[in-house]
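Sequence in, structure out.
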Amino acid sequence: GAAQRRTEAFEKMLSQFKPLFWDTDIGALDMTVNRQYIISRLLSMGGMPGYLWVTRHYSEEAIVEAIIQRRDMHPIMRNFMAERYHIPKDQLVKARTWR
């Protein structure tokens, strides 16, 4: 398997945002391997603290990649981030329906 990259900042984030990962084995999360999932979860449900953590710990390229490829990002945050990073809407994958 992939080597675990579990920095102190990553462990602190997991502790702070544990409820956001209710459907995940937190012990198996890897900051690099699971970056799109983590970015999407924190941006969609982590509020300003989640947004700040993502922008401090992931590169712009990693964030843009997640915005473009993840179908589960909340549409309001996705649209905001697409504007923030100047991503044309036609580059975004079709998102799932939110209720």
